[in-house]
Here is the input.
Amino acid sequence: MQLSKREFLIASAALSLAAGLRSANAATAINYWHHFASQSEMAGLAKIIQLFTAANPDVAVTQEGIPNSEYMAKVSSAVVAGGRPDTGMVIAERFADLTAMGALVDISARVNTWAGKANLPDNRWTGMSQDGAIYAVPAYAFVDWMYYRKDYFEEAGLSAPKTFEEFLVACRKLTDPSKNRYAFGMRGGAGAFKYVIDVMEAFGSPLVKDGQPAIDKPAAVEAITFYADLFRKEKVVPPSAPNDSYRQIMEGFRTGQTAMVWHHTGSLIEISAALKQGEQFATAPMPAGPKAHIARVAYAGNGIFKEDNVEAAWKWISFWGETDAAIALLEATGYFPASTAALKDERITGNPIYGAATQTLEFGRLPNSFVGAAGWSENVVNPTFQAVLTGQLTPEQAVDRFIEGLEAALR
Here is the structure.
């Protein structure tokens, strides 16, 4: 459920009160940098700190929220000029950049003697490790899936699409501009790059191989043509698509303007506050492309950024791997647990809405992670795809820009 203002204020007060009580008891003080921002995320963090404090009264955690867009810049400044936090959030997409700047402490020895490691399969550590060394403990995952209006689909006699071909058929059948109803909420504004890249890979084009650019131009052009034509030719997405980012695609789905939207488990709480699970909306795995079935499972974790209070810091980041902490975050935010022990909890296994995420864990891929990936995605892929939607570039010209930008990013 979406938090009320009163519930949010209570959660915020709990964070402040807990910090004050721990300081009074002269516990070892550590700080934690993160980019949680929403009310639900802050409520989940408050609950985790509450649970952690009860189990570890000798450690005082002070949290500091940093806007997502500023997080890497602040970490970089802290590494160069001093002022690193004790601990901080680590997401797979940024891992390569964080390790390249020397921001993270090697925690391999601690992880390898930690009982909780048994609940975290090898693929959880892939985006948190490099050259055999582990730098962060996986805490939760953003699992890609598709939300769809179950009531609209039943009315049209359709099932959730399993392939891009079925997806296009559903798009054509569910679109009715006279009713301001469109089949798909396309993200063409901020954050569009994620789905552009996914569609390219679904059509058979990799990005990087052995550290070198590897975009397959014919496959990439075919992919961009297919995806952009949902707006340009098929007109099965809202006219506002070139500028629509997260907020717009969510509002379109919540209000009934669109019948499908691609996102991840992290938006479940927001959608569930507006629509009834299993009646008005349901979830399904992302549809498969002609060459590959692409859905990301982006594990996020926490790392140690300096060794000043390493024992207390380790207690904090490893606590996120505990089942109680993972379920507390899931219930507040919809963020899926990384721990297999938590995944066996009846609060997950007993809820059909999570079935698509569980299926996706079987085939989902980690996000692409290479030095410069974030900058290339945000500064090259995003504006270039927008230019295709607005008619300023052809798909062929767009792919040429992708290739040129990727070559520059990998130099």
User: Anything to note?
Assistant: The first helix runs from residue 5 to 24. The CA atoms of residues 87 and 304 lie 4 Å apart. The first strand starts at residue 28 and ends at 34.
